[in-house]
Amino acid sequence: KQEVTQIPAALSVPEGENLVLNCSFTDSAIYNLQWFRQDPGKGLTSLLLIQSSQREQTSGRLNASLDKSSGRSTLYIAASQPGDSATYLCAGLNNAGNMLTFGGGTRLMVKP
Amino acid sequence: EPEVTQTPSHQVTQMGQEVILRCVPISNHLYFYWYRQILGQKVEFLVSFYNNEISEKSEIFDDQFSVERPDGSNFTLKIRSTKLEDSAMYFCASIARDTRSFATNEKLFFGSGTQLSVL
Question: I need a surface site. Which of A96, B33, B85, B113 has the fewest CB within 10 A?
Fold first, then answer.
């Protein structure tokens, strides 16, 4: 059974800092790995998706990497802004393509 | 941008009552999902649905749960006899195609959720 873990659970940084969020998964047989953003009381917004054959994806100030062999993914946020404050979730998709397994999330606070 | 719509946003019910949570997926999407998030815990997969049948379900999705696509636009989750531990935020999600066909710019769209409180 896939288990996804995110470290740290919470992170507080001053505005402008670059930061890295970590995600690890136990079963390397994933089809892809996705990063989501969750604002309080809101749904989940997809940020980046990395196919199992890829190593990284970039979107603006966000860069996600994937190392299947070690069961790790990272989300790098450059030049953080207060608007980046949210919970960030990673999720691995099974090979059947019909089930995402989520990590517990990292709650990020960017202070002005 | 297209949206997945969920109603109601909040629902309070008594233990043992039936509840139906409603979702309107994006109109051209074919795959639908229900997830839930108990306060302070992980987002958990409940069920996926394609071509009018369940594609996959988790161990959480027992006989008390059912899903239905009663018409061309709605996708519902029914809990027959609610328990206290069913209290959670329930999220509906949809995607246009088989998730194995995700392109790098293709997204799984989530609704804003229904907060279910069982008293």
Answer: B85
